[in-house]
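To: structure subgroup
Subject: Chain for Friday's discussion

All,

I'm putting the inputs and outputs inline so they're searchable in the archive.
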Amino acid sequence: MDWNSTIKGFSAYLRMERGLSGNSVEAYIRDSEKLATYIHEVHSGISPIKVTLTHLEGFVKYLDQQGMDERSQARVRSGVRAFYKYLLVEDLCDQDPTELLEGPRLLKKFPDVLSLDEINTLLNLIDLSTDSGVRNRAMLETLYACGLRVSELVTLRISMLYPDLGFLKVIGKNNKERIVPIGTVALKHIHLYQEGVRRRMKKIAPGHEDILFLNLRGKKLSRIMVFQLIKDLTAKAGILKTVSPHTFRHSFATHLVERGADLKAVQDMLGHESITTTEIYTHLDTDYLRETLHKFHPRFNTRLNR
């Protein structure tokens, strides 16, 4: 059993059996290839099923020596664990060497969240006198209004919009569909974009006729383009937080939880499979409450005189 053919089988398994996205599959394959390269260079290329816990512990030390940070190391270990889970499922090996593999315990890092004022600042910086500005405003209004992933935003179809009902249909991870409410402000900007910009486009690329947000060539926008747009707006606004399209999603969820939204409803709108994933926003909310109390309560941080 050689590494190349095994990793190819792993890739097919992730795509066909697990139904993972292309980006997720690529990440898992990169992690597996890192292990394969290490084994080839240090252990004379023993086969995947001959790898032991000792080999893997050496691999983790190797990653650390290469200057890889702890969070990246944790991601690679996760990919290697998935690789050996595949070998077990396919009966290609009879024990999992990653079972006792340990690494540094990571501190939970909560994502940056924008305040409502910061959201409004970014949106108001967009120049609505240009076609691209009208599109960008509609796009970011939708991103925040519905808590979409950037991949869901750029693949959003006109046929998925139900403006009269105030909903849109989203194709999320693993091609799972969900229905998400959308507010009147976002719908207004989508309407302005559709009627004032998109309907006047002279050329739309074949296969992109139903895509809502298009670039100047009449094609679906790239994820990178949305990242760059938000990066530029953040710099222009002078906001020092790390802001990405996902920050809009985090802000959407956090603002709902702060205002008392039911956690199960937030889970459904975000498309999380497990409520545990959504519970991070209760921690964010707790931090927000503590920060508010610290800032405004006159005796919160006062030491008692003895």
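Points worth raising on Friday:
The first helix runs from residue 3 to 17.
The beta strands are 161-162, 167-171, 177-181.

D.
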